[in-house]
Amino acid sequence: MTKQRLHLLALALGGTLFLGGCAEFPIFDQKAPRSPSHPKASAPRATPAAERDASPPREAASRARDRDGDGVPDNQKESGLREGIRLYNEGDFNGAIRRLSARDVNNGPLATRLMALKYQAFSYCVTSRPAPCRQAFDRALRLDPAFDLAPGEHGHPLWGPVFTKAKQAAGQR
Length: 173
Hints:
Blueprint: H1 3-21, H2 49-53, H3 58-64, H4 74-89, H5 93-100, H6 103-106, H7 110-126, H8 130-143, H9 151-154, H10 160-172
Helix pairs in contact: 4-5, 4-7, 5-7, 7-8, 8-10
């Protein structure tokens, strides 16, 4: 197979896996807030002037969005993950590895770090680098021993066997 054909195959498979397996990931399942069905329930409540004036300053509001206190807003971490996955789906595997390895993503919530490591591993595997692929899976399994791939991802000819070996080794620790 030509290199271009492999990239197209990897891109098609990645897109399929992304749409099939990752759609349930919490950051991709964001829904617009529902409006109440009862008209009185949606009427705006009058806010006393004292409550309006006691609103928290912008500094406190921005700190609230940085739940882990690393100085990077949480939404930026999630957008870094989305950007890395987008690069992966577009076939820019080296770009995906760079983006998913960035500080803002790696200092994110556990779910963000695990998803980033998974896509890093996939990117390493599709670019014929099984050792870093295995290392990414090993890191994910150290972070969360229950980490697993989606059912459709297990059978992939490139990363499926690498993940299986990493999972077996993690179980022996």
